[in-house]
Each structure stands twice: as C-alpha cells, then as structure tokens.
Design a protein that fits this description.
single chain, 207 residues, 4 helices, 21% strand
Amino acid sequence: MDNGQMKSDKKEWRRRLTAVRDALSLEEREQRSESLCGLVELHVLYPLRSKLGRPLNICVYAPFRSEASPLTLLQQCWDRGDLTAAPRIIPGREGIEIRKVEALSNWIPGKWGVPEPDPLQTCLIDRTKSLDVVLVPGIVFNEAGGRLGYGGGYYDRLYAQELSKGGAETLWIGFAFSNQVVTDIIPMEPHDLKLNGLATDEKFIWY
C-alpha cells in the first residue's frame, strides 16, 4: 500500500468510527466509561500496585468530545496516592510534555480544544522516572493491538521518548468503547505505538 492510499484509508476509518462513537448518548457514554474504569483498575492498576508495592506513576487524559472518560478512574488514583499526569502539546513545536495533575480544575482547553494541563497550575513531572501506565485514547482499535488516533502522532512520539530512556516496562493501555473496536486490519506504520492491552466497556485484552 502506497503512502497516499494509507492516508486515505486512515481518514475513512476515522470518519466512520467517530460517527459510531458520536452516536452514543451522553448517558450511555457515562455508563460505559464507568465500566471501562472498573476493568482498568481490576486488570491493570490493582495488580501492578500489588506487584510493585508502591503507588503508580500514571499518564491519563481528560475526554475530548465523545471520547471514553477515565475521570472516575483518575479520582480513584488520587485516593490511592498514585502520581497522575497528562500530556500537553508544547506550543510552536511538535513535541509534548508531561505535567502532574491533582484536580479536575487543572485542565484547560488546548490545541484544537483538547483538554490539557494548565501550565500555570501544574508542574512538569520528573522524566528520569518511567511511567508505569499510559492510558491511550483513540478513534479506532482492533483486537490485534492496532490503533488510530487523530493523526497528530503525539502518543507515538511519547512512546518513542519512553523507549529511548529505558521505559520498556511502561504499559500502554488503549481506552475505548467496545463499538470502536473492529475486526479488520487497521493501516499501521512502523513508528506507531504498540499497545500492551486494550480496555473496553465489555472486556480487557492483553497483547
């Protein structure tokens, strides 16, 4: 497949699955998000805390438009003493930085309206320490570990950053509604991040 065809295919997948996600009512999205949060705690966070014997360093996000919401899970992480952080796009550059978030009020609209940590209320986290878990949003997923986001490549670059500094143990967990998961092959490129697992409102899958 040539590059032009791949871009066209990705655009069509994004269009189709965004429409599927948007069709969910607010009430249904909230209910499904609650189920998602419970499965991530059960299958990922609780076992990892027990294994490591300490609170976790977790990278989360605040939902944009009709995305699945991890905010219930975020509150639980605060209650358990985990360090929670979120990505922020660096203005005028293609990179992202990771900032500590300690309250829902720490988020403001960023590029394209996507919620991100307010630099006036948050601080950069110590990047010499690897993240234990990264919750990864997206538009399309499949059960083979494929993922399509919005096309900016920011999570792919964060993935490369973590690997370059020895963060091979970081768990990259897709976080999505079950109707965002397809059985088809998703067009992927060599630099795309490799998920370790996928949480939906119906089940959890390890890869």
